[in-house]
Amino acid sequence: MNPRLVVLTGAGISAESGLRTFRGNDGMWEHENIDDVCTPEGYYRDRKRVKDFYNFLRRGLKEHEPNAAHFALAELEKRLGNDFLLITQNVDDLHERAGSRKVLHMHGDLNRLTCERNPDHKFVFTEDETMDTVCPFCESMSRPDIVFFGEPPLYMDRIQDALRQCEEFVYIGTSSVVYPAAGFKSFAKSYGAKVTCLNLEVPENDPYTDICIQGKATEIVPRWCKAFK
Ligand code: OAD
C-alpha cells in the first residue's frame, strides 16, 4: 500500500540530539576522510580501521536521546498509519527510539551488520565488531551495514513506488547534495506531489520545492506535524 505522505530525514534532524552532521561547520567530513571510512576501496584497504570507526559511532549512540522532532514524526506515524512512510539517510537509531516503527534506513543502520559475501544477510548487532565477527547465516566475514559512497542505497524500489504515488513529500534536515536522495524532490514533484522543505537553511528559488520552512528541527517539525491534515 502506498503512503499519502513520504518524509525524508537527514543528519539535521539529529543535530539537536548532539550528533554531528556531515557537512558544514565542524561536520563529520571535516574530521574524517570520506575515502578512508566511507568507500568500498577504503574498507578493503583497511577493514579494521573502518570497523573501528563505526564501532566508535555505534557506542556513541547510547549517549544521545531522540529529540522533539523525532517524537513528532513517530506521533504522526501513529496518526496516519499506512498513509505515512519515513525514509532516513541517517544510520542512527533515534527515530526508532522515539517510537517510529517503519523506518527505511536507505544508507544503512549502525545497529546492524551485513555480510561481505551476501548483502542480503543482515543482522542486528549492537556490540563492537571485530575481525573475527562473522555472518550468522553463512559464516563469511561481516561488515558494517553502511552504504558506502559508490554503493547502491537500500530499498530503492519501495522508495520510488512511494514517491510516485504520494500526495506530499517532505524533506527535513538534509543538505540535499547526496544522490539519489537529493533527487527525490524532483522525482516526487514530477509525479504530482507537493514538496516541502523543513531545514535550518532553505534553498532559494528551488523549482522542485513548493514550501520552505526555515528553523531548528525541534521547533519547526513538531509544529508542522501537528498542522498536517
Ligand atoms: P548534511 O550534513 O549534508 O546536511 C545536514 C543539513 O541539516 C544541513 O542542510 C543543515 O543546514 C541542516 N541542519 C543542521 N542543524 C539543523 C537543525 N538543528 N535543524 C534542522 N536542520 C538542521 O547531512 P545529510 O544531508 O543527511 O551518507 O547528508 C547526506 C549523506 O551524506 C549522509 O547520509 C551520509 C553523508 O555522507 C553516507 O554516509 C552514505
Descriptive notes:
It is a single chain. With 229 residues, the chain is an alpha/beta fold. The protein contains ten helices and nine strands. The strands form two sheets. It has a six-stranded parallel β-sheet, with helices on both faces. The chain has a three-stranded antiparallel β-sheet with strand order 5-4-6, with helices on one face. Helix 9 (184-190) links the parallel strand 7 (168-172) and strand 8 (194-199). Helix 6 (68-80) packs parallel to helix 10 (217-227). The longest helix is centred in the first third of the chain and has 15 residues, at 47-61. The structure holds 2'-O-acetyl adenosine-5-diphosphoribose (OAD). 2'-O-acetyl adenosine-5-diphosphoribose is lined by residues 10-12, 15-16, 21-23, 27, 38, 89, 107, 147, 173-175, 178, 199-201, 216-217.
Derived from helix and strand composition plus strand pairing, the structural class reads alpha/beta
Give the bound compounds.
2'-O-acetyl adenosine-5-diphosphoribose
Question: How would you describe the shape?
Answer: globular
Name the beta content range.
Answer: 15-25%
Provide tags for this entry.
alpha/beta, 6-stranded parallel sheet, 3-stranded antiparallel sheet, about 230 residues, globular, binds 2'-O-acetyl adenosine-5-diphosphoribose, about 35% helix, about 20% strand, 10 helices
